[in-house]
Every structure is written in C-alpha cells, then in structure tokens.
C-alpha cells in the first residue's frame, strides 16, 4: 500500500500494553500508526512501530485540552486525516470508596472520560467533513459490573460506555461508527498491579486463562474493519467469558 493511500489510526496510550498491541495489529494490516502518550520519548517498540508505518509519536497529556488541540491540529496538518481513532489511554487506582481522594477521583475521570471527549472532538469534525470515520473507546467489564476497590475506575468506565452510545447516535448520520471495548483481566501493568491474585480471577474465567493484549487488539481491528460495518454503539466484551452481558 502506498504511503498516499495508507489509512491512519491514532491511538492514545499506545506506548505500551493494550495500546501498543493495537498499534502493532493495525500496522500489520497496512495502517499508518500515530501514538499519543505521556513519556517525552516513545519506548523502543513504539518508536519502531511509528517509524516503520510512516506514522508519528506525540508526547501529549490528554487531560489538557489546549495541548490536545495543538497535537491534533499537527496530526491533521501532517497526515490530512484520521481514519480510525482508538481512545485507549486509561488509569486505574485500586482504592476503596471511603479512601479515595479528590486527586484520585479527578485523575481517573480526567484521563478515562475527559480525555476521550476532547481528543475525539477535533477528529470528529474532520471525520464529518470527510463523511466517514471510526472510533473505538476503551471501556472495561468494570463499567458493566463494578468491583470493590475500583469504585471511581468502574464509574468512569460506565461513563465511557454511555458516552459511546450517545456518540454513535449523534455521529451515525455522518457515517461515523463508534463502539467500545470492554476488556476483562488483561496481562498488562494495570492488570498485573491488581491486589488480588491471578488465581482468583482464573477461577471466574470459563476459558481458563487471563487475556493478552493481542486478544483485545484483534477485536479492535475487527471493529474498525468492514466486517463490522453495521455495528455501532456497542460495548464488546473481551473477558474470556467472565462477563456475558
């Protein structure tokens, strides 16, 4: 695929974990990969991915709207468009309801919800002008069925699922599809930092294993593909069977 004809995927939080795996999958499918994340410089894997696909890496705090607007303007000015937006960046604080601080509350809602909202806005304007687009928001099974010591995280992910549904209804007439992914326990830094043991999760998983980032990446690519062209407003579980609604 020539550079001119390449489609572009923009992934927030794509420097590692699920975001990096999603970037790799899209890169394998011929996409130009653009990553937004917090480190001033990308990790080696993210740097290689963006270079090899003709994309770019941007240091961007997605909770700062002014910085987001600046970065997205540069992305659109450089590449002309974003075909697929993957709002993957997220943060989880393992804190009980009574012990959660205001700072922990604000951080999780700012990254998990506000970040999606204001990264999406300028890209959606561009998608409307082109008459097409695809957005994938990262929810969680916790957004469907809350869990102890994840109070704010679960509330924020429930907001992501609802935001996805409303975006899908508003943007469908512009040929823009919006879906969310709801992973279960995935073997990333967030999942591995859980205060409970892996065995306690395994007994709840019909498939008998925890998820890998690649398990989520495959579903993300499916949602962006024409195979899912009649799907929008959905919250798709990737939980090994732990969540069935």
Automatic annotation (TrEMBL):
What InterPro entries has UniProt attached to this entry? NAD(P)-bd_dom_sf, Sc_DH/Rdtase_CS, SDR_fam
Q: Which GO terms describe its biological process?
A: bile acid metabolic process; fatty acid biosynthetic process
Q: Which keywords does UniProt give here?
A: Oxidoreductase
* A molecular function GO annotation: quinone binding
One Pfam family, please name it. Answer: adh_short_C2
* Superkingdom to which the source organism belongs: Bacteria
Keyword Oxidoreductase in record: yes
Q: Which PANTHER family match?
A: 3-OXOACYL-[ACYL-CARRIER-PROTEIN] REDUCTASE, SHORT-CHAIN DEHYDROGENASES/REDUCTASES FAMILY MEMBER
UniProt lists the family membership as follows: Belongs to the short-chain dehydrogenases/reductases (SDR) family.
Q: What is this protein called?
A: SDR family oxidoreductase
Q: Which organism is it from?
A: Paenibacillus oralis
């Amino acid at each position: 695929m020539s550079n001119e004809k390449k489609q572009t995927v923009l992934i927030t939080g794509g420097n590692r974990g699920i975001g990096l795996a999603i970037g790799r999958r899209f890169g394998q499918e011929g996409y130009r990969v653009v990553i937004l994340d917090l480190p001033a410089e990308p990790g080696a894997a993210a740097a290689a991915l963006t270079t090899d696909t003709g994309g770019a890496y941007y240091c961007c705090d997605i909770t700062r709207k002014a910085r987001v607007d600046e970065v997205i303007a540069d992305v659109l000015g450089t590449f002309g468009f974003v075909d697929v937006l993957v709002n993957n960046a997220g943060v989880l604080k393992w804190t009980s309801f009574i012990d959660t601080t205001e700072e922990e509350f604000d951080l999780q809602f700012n990254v998990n919800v506000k970040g999606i909202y204001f990264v999406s806005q300028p890209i959606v304007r561009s998608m409307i002008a082109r008459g097409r687009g695809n957005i994938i928001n990262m929810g969680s099974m916790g957004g469907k069925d809350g869990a102890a010591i994840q109070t704010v995280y679960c509330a924020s992910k429930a907001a992501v699922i609802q935001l996805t549904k409303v975006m899908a209804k508003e943007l469908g007439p512009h040929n823009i599809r919006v879906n969310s992914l709801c992973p279960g326990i995935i073997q990333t830094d967030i999942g591995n930092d859980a205060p409970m043991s892996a065995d306690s999760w395994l007994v709840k998983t019909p498939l008998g294993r925890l998820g890998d980032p690649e398990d989520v990446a495959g579903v993300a690519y499916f949602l962006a593909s024409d195979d899912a062209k009649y799907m929008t407003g959905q919250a798709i579980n990737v939980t090994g069977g732990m969540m069935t609604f």
